[in-house]
From TrEMBL:
<dbReference type="GO" id="GO:0030655">
    <property type="term" value="P:beta-lactam antibiotic catabolic process"/>
</dbReference>
<protein>
    <recommendedName>
        <fullName>beta-lactamase</fullName>
        <ecNumber>3.5.2.6</ecNumber>
    </recommendedName>
</protein>
<dbReference type="Pfam" id="PF13354">
    <property type="entry name" value="Beta-lactamase2"/>
</dbReference>
<dbReference type="InterPro" id="IPR045155">
    <property type="entry name" value="Beta-lactam_cat"/>
</dbReference>
<keyword id="KW-0732">Signal</keyword>
<feature type="signal peptide">
    <location>
        <begin position="1"/>
        <end position="22"/>
    </location>
</feature>
<feature type="domain" description="Beta-lactamase class A catalytic">
    <location>
        <begin position="58"/>
        <end position="312"/>
    </location>
</feature>
<dbReference type="GO" id="GO:0046677">
    <property type="term" value="P:response to antibiotic"/>
</dbReference>
<dbReference type="InterPro" id="IPR000871">
    <property type="entry name" value="Beta-lactam_class-A"/>
</dbReference>
<dbReference type="GO" id="GO:0008800">
    <property type="term" value="F:beta-lactamase activity"/>
</dbReference>
<dbReference type="InterPro" id="IPR012338">
    <property type="entry name" value="Beta-lactam/transpept-like"/>
</dbReference>
<keyword id="KW-0378">Hydrolase</keyword>
<comment type="similarity">
    <text>Belongs to the class-A beta-lactamase family.</text>
</comment>
Length: 351
C-alpha cells in the first residue's frame, strides 16, 4: 500500500550496513553483557532508550506481514496529543467510502471552531471554505489544529470517531475531545464563553504557572493521568494495522491516507530521524508540554513494512531527548525486522 519515494538505492546501501553510533555518544546506559535472543535484545534496547526520559515511555512495533509484535509498556495509556488525528482521518475516509462525503467537498470554516496558529486567520473571512482534501493535508502534514477541528465536526464529533475505531476491533484508543478542548485540558483551563484566544489569555493572567509550563516545556501531571484522549501503543498499532490491511478503508482511501502521511512535515527527527535516506515513511506526530509521540509505518528495502508507535509522557528533559527516544526505537526495530531471520514470527512479546 505504501509506495517508496525516489531514492538512490546504491548510495543508500552502504548506510544500511554502517555501524550505529556508540551508545556512549548519546549518554545511553551500557549494554548488558549477557547473551539474549533477538527479541530480548530488542526489548532491552527499548528499555535503554526509555531511560533517556525522566517520564514514561511506551513503544510498540509490528511486522505487518507476520503480525509479530514487540512492545515496552504496550498496554499503558498515553495522551495521544495530535497523534489522534490519524483516527480522525480514518473516520473521514470511511465517510468518503460510504458515499456520505466527497474528497473535493468544501467545508465551511466556522469561526466558532478557530483556536490559534495555522489557518486560524482564515476563519474570520465570511464564507471561507476549504476542501476535505486540503483539510486532510493540513491536519496530517502540518498538524493544523484548526483544520482538524473542522474535520472532527464533519466526522460527527469525538464520539463518532471513537465508535469508528471501536468498530474496527481496536481497544484502548479513545477520542473524547476536539483539539481546542484537548488543549484546554492540557493547559488546565476551564473554558468560559468566548474565543479560544480570550480564554487562554484570561487563564494565563489568572495562573502564571500555565505560561511557565509552556515556556519550560514541562508536563501537566493531571493531564498526563487523565484517561481521556489516550491510546496504548498496542491500540495504535491495531489501528495502523487495520488501515494497512485494507480492513478499515477502501484501497483508494488507504492509499490516499498513507500518501498524505508520507508527506508529514513535523517530527523529522522522530520516526525518520535515524533511518537510511530514502526510506519510505508515513507517520503522524503528537506534541504537548512534556509529551512527544510519533506513530506510523516504515517500509524496509525489500518492500516489507512495519508499524511503529512511540509515546513519551511526563517528561521534563525536553523535545530533543524525546525525539531521540523515538528515532532510536524506530531504528532498532528497522534493524530487527530486516536482519533478524531467527526471530519467531507471529508472536507478541513485551511488557
Amino acid at each position: 500500500m505504501l509506495s517508496l519515494r525516489p531514492a538512490a538505492a546504491l548510495a543508500a546501501l552502504g548506510l544500511f550496513f554502517a555501524p550505529l553510533p556508540a551508545a556512549d555518544a548519546f549518554g545511553l546506559p551500557p549494554r548488558p553483557l549477557v547473551e539474549q535472543s533477538a527479541q530480548a535484545k530488542l526489548l532491552a534496547e527499548f528499555a535503554r532508550f526509555a531511560a533517556l526520559s525522566d517520564g514514561s515511555v511506551g513503544i510498540g512495533v509490528r511486522d505487518l506481514q507476520t503480525g509479530e509484535t514487540q512492545a515496552l509498556n504496550g498496554d499503558t495509556l498515553f495522551p495521544m496529543a495530535s497523534a489522534y488525528k490519524v483516527a480522525v482521518a480514518g473516520r473521514i475516509f470511511s465517510l468518503i467510502d460510504a458515499g456520505d462525503l466527497r474528497i473535493d467537498d468544501p467545508l465551511a470554516l466556522d469561526p466558532a471552531l478557530a483556536s490559534e496558529g495555522g489557518i486560524a486567520w482564515m476563519f474570520s473571512r465570511p464564507g471561507a471554505t476549504l476542501s476535505v482534501q486540503r483539510l486532510l493535508e493540513l491536519m496530517l502534514t502540518k498538524s493544523d489544529n484548526n483544520a482538524t477541528d473542522v474535520l472532527v465536526a464533519r466526522a460527527g464529533g469525538p464520539q463518532a470517531i471513537t465508535a469508528f475505531v471501536t468498530k474496527l476491533g481496536v481497544r484502548g484508543l479513545e477520542v473524547d475531545s476536539d483539539t481546542a478542548h484537548l488543549l484546554y485540558r492540557a493547559m488546565g483551563i476551564d473554558p468560559q464563553s468566548g474565543s479560544f484566544r480570550a480564554n487562554v489569555e484570561a487563564a494565563r493572567r489568572a495562573d502564571p504557572q500555565i505560561a511557565v509550563r509552556d515556556l519550560k516545556d514541562l508536563p501537566n501531571p493531571d493531564f498526563a493521568i487523565d484517561p481521556r484522549d489516550t491510546s496504548t501503543p498496542t491500540a495504535m498499532l491495531d489501528l495502523l494495522t487495520a488501515y494497512e490491511s485494507g480492513k478499515a478503508l477502501s484501497a483508494g482511501s488507504t492509499q490516499r491516507l498513507f500518501t498524505i502521511m508520507g508527506h508529514c512535515e513535523t517530527g523529522k527527527a522522530r520516526i525518520p530521524g535515524m533511518l537510511p535516506p530514502g526510506t519510505a515513511v508515513a507517520h503522524k506526530t503528537g506534541s504537548m508540554n512534556g509529551i512527544g509521540n510519533d506513530v506510523g509505518i516504515v517500509q524496509l528495502p525489500d518492500g516489507r513494512r512495519f508499524a511503529v508507535a512511540v509515546f513519551v509522557m511526563k517528561d521534563s528533559r525536553g523535545h530533543t531527548s524525546r525525539d531521540r527516544i523515538i528515532a532510536e526505537a524506530t531504528r532498532a526495530a528497522y534493524d530487527y525486522f530486516l536482519y533478524a531471520p531467527d526471530r519467531v514470527h507471529g508472536r507478541s512479546h513485551g511488557a
